[in-house]
Amino acid sequence: MFTESPDTSNTDRSPRGIQSVEVGGQLLIALAQHGRPLPLKELATAAGMPAAKAHPYLVSFIKLGLVEQESGGGHYGLGPLALQLGLISLQQYDPVRLATPRIEELALLLGHTVAIAVWGNRGPTIVRVAEAPSPVHISMRHGVVMSLRGTASGRLFAAHRPRPELLAALQAEAALDGGDARVGADFEKLLTQARQQGLASSRDGVVQGVSALAAPVFDEQGRMVLSLTAIGPSGSFDASLNGSAALNLKRSGLDLSRQLGWRER
User: What is the model's pTM?
Assistant: First the structure.
């Protein structure tokens, strides 16, 4: 029988839920976090309950299709309904819409302008901007295409795009600014660093006195779908890859990636 969560305080204004659902839900959370079928005892331990208590929940979840039990070893894994719900959830997530409130929070936290860039037909393109709350800040405009070589977001996308696509974009960029269309050893080193550290930075790159940091956001297939890019005056902007701004950007990028179904390998 379902029981309601007790109202432990008159000051607690949060809606009351069904305690049995919340308890059983810990089994589903444990399966999702482990990402593989588990034996009953290990699954129950991960969910913080005895195996005898977990088993009736699993029987009900199997009937609903949220859980399935392997015929051989008896391990429990997520069922077809859980997988279907996950796919529907991913389809409903628009990465830019999901990231927009995050850049507003980051702009307030960092004190610098933060933007979202996506890969457009001309390269990394700014699609959302949250202006810094401070009177001294660097403005970015929607629709601006970022340099692949000279900007943090450009380097980040260059590090994660398929090589043929990157080479074509470098050629197009070189045709406009007269730069080098080749990757080259120095640029390759920057791309490797961006992949390894999960961040890219630039200082006085395209514009003197302007610095930036960018963190990637990945989808469920491991593709980079956007960058979170913070930008500010070089004199007051910490562009180091282990500074507070970098850590907050990277943390937000990882959070958004996980929401989009990305799993760290």
Answer: 0.67
